[in-house]
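In the laboratory, one determines a bound structure by crystallizing the protein with its ligand and collecting diffraction data. In a computational setting the workflow is compressed into a single prediction: the sequence and the ligand go in, and a structural description comes out. We illustrate the idea with beta-D-glucopyranose.
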Amino acid sequence: MDIKAIVSQMTLEEKAGLCSGLDFWHTKPVERLGVPSVMVSDGPHGLRKQEEKVDHLGVNDSIKAVCMPAACATAASFDRALIGRMGEAIGDSCQHERLCVVLGPAVNIKRSPLCGRNFEYFSEDPYLAGEMSAAYINGVQSRNVGTSIKHFAGNNQEHRRMSSSSNVDERTLREIYFPAFEISVKKAQPWTVMCSYNRLNGTYASENPWLLTDVLRKEWGFKGYVMSDWGAVSNRVAGVAAGLDLEMPSSGGINDKKIVEAVRAGKLDEAVVDQAVERILTINYRYLENAKPETPWDQEADHQLSAQIAQECMVLLKNEGVLPLNKADEIAFIGEFARKPRFQGGGSSHINSCKITSALDAAEGLKITYAQGYSVAKDEATDEMIAEAVSAAKAAKVAVVFAGLPDSYESEGYDRSHMAMPACQNRLIEAVAAANPNTVVVLHNGSPVEMPWIGQVKGVLEAYLGGQAVGLATVRVLFGDANPSGHLAETFPVKLADNPSYLFYGGEGNEADYREGVFVGYRYYDKKAMEVLFPFGYGLSYTSFAYSNLRLSAEEISDRDALTATVTVTNTGSRAGKTVVQLYVGDVQSTVLRPVRELKGFEKVELQPGESRDVSFTLDKRAFAYWNTALGDWHVETGEFRIEIGQSSRDIEVCGTVRVNSTVALKQHYSMDSIFMDLMADPRPAQALKPVLDRIAKGFGPSPDQGTTDAAKEAITDEMGMAMLNYMPLRSVLSFSHGMIDEAEVQSMLDELNRA
Ligand code: BGC
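The predicted complex, in structure-token form:
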């Protein structure tokens, strides 16, 4: 299709019209020119296609669809191929349902356990979030259906989400909040990007030219179109100019008119409107020309796929010999979630599931007794419920309590105010654990919870919000038909107050200051060597693994070279299983504040008992770099870097070092205010100013006319003198030289240095 030719035939009104939705879910058609309308739909872990009453909060019904595990779960799989398969299935269902774009993945960083939408987001780690997101996008788009990676950017809280400003310094944006988007754009080129509701450093994301054009398009090379989150537009004309192509949903014609007026008044270049229309139509036709509504959608097959995905995501957090369960034993399933699992979160991602399999359904035929334990609707556990649960627990070999967060505890639209589980459930778990020493807790939640009972139970399985087949997956894992292999994509702190954003999360009024900077999640807990409940990357298996023989391809590289790290991984247990090999990099010594370690590679590997395999990672400049604001670029400081490989961020099994030499000279500006220490540390001024500095160093000391006693003079040792001298600016050491050195001479040396 010749898109440019279509655009050239459109009137200004038609073009302005195309820059906003027809209604809640469609783009506008231009019937005169035969341009059809296309439909978009939520997303991300299944379809929320609404045919009648529409909304963006998950209130009204949508078609029956398959609810796959939410991102909190899929991230824990650390499995790119797996989430790619999920993307393919979702892409196929989009084709079947005539959808051009599925609204996801949602990749915002989990800055605090409190964010109401954490269940929809992948991780506290930007690399993991980016890799999982790119794999999902590639999966969906392999079916000629688009994605909309969201919410760009800095949308890490629900509180005041449409007015709050996320105030984040540039280095933190580049290192923590941008990479999931950047990796996705570079590796998967999403058809669309959805800008967020919030402001970023004072400017709405929907009208931020630096964000939507300079960074997204010019730096990263994004080629698709940008759409607004639903209702995220404040100043539409500023938005068009900034690079926001499509406003969603419809603006009722109001903003279309404003675009026309702005062009007529010479305030907005018509070429910018043309460009937006061209981008939207390019994507629409990419779908239209490849539409395959005859694609079958086998929902039963997707239900089975969803179970398979869920079992790869579950994280075994604790197991003191109690799991896997024996099918011949009598087991008590306790808690309403065993019968009615919580498997998805609330809001725009809410799916009208075609089928739900609970753990009780899945365990049919086994020796299971059931006690409700608590009521989700009433959020209470009566004495009778507890008594019934205790007697079921006493009669059973093992008691499995299905617990977690009810729907009302976490959802799009608001944040949590604490990290606790319902008090009634904690009480139930303690009572059951007191009645039966073999107690296991299965958790359904979208974000970390505090576990006051952790010392009283023998097993904990984090099932997250595992999709509509979560019960099937849970029973397979509990009874050992599947070997758990999920690892945490987020830290579980001991308590909420330990979280680095604790003091500032939510902000004051509309100002949310990200004062913890780059120290998000394990980057903070590791820097402070804090005790955590479960660390990032952690997860147990029914087998065991050993990592050995780390080989680095070089001892020394330049920042233009790649380094290969290879490790041998062995299944040392008696069952087949999967391990998540994690590679972290840490700068041994740095002049800027950096995390102890950062995830720079991971691979999920399946091994038979006794089997060994080599796993290799390639590290490039980015793996060693931090964002240097003065340079406006990634920078590697020359020096040693630790390469750590392990089974979690706190379980490093092998470690090596490499020296990386920078090929970029950081240009410093020196003045009379520059301090001695900095001048001496940089070879250029150290050499240029050497004679002067030597004279100053020699002459350094109190002047005779200050009446200093000999004893005091002796007390000023060389070391102390140097230490004091270190922090002095050039101007004050000059004055201490008692006229020995000519200021003009030093100034001209400085000018020379700064010119070079
Ligand atoms: C959400 C988006 C969603 C959109 C459409 C918004 O409220 O933030 O994630 O895609 O609604 O439902």
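The chain has four domains: 3-64+78-288, 306-527, 545-661, 676-755. Keep in mind that any predicted model is a hypothesis to be tested, not a measurement.
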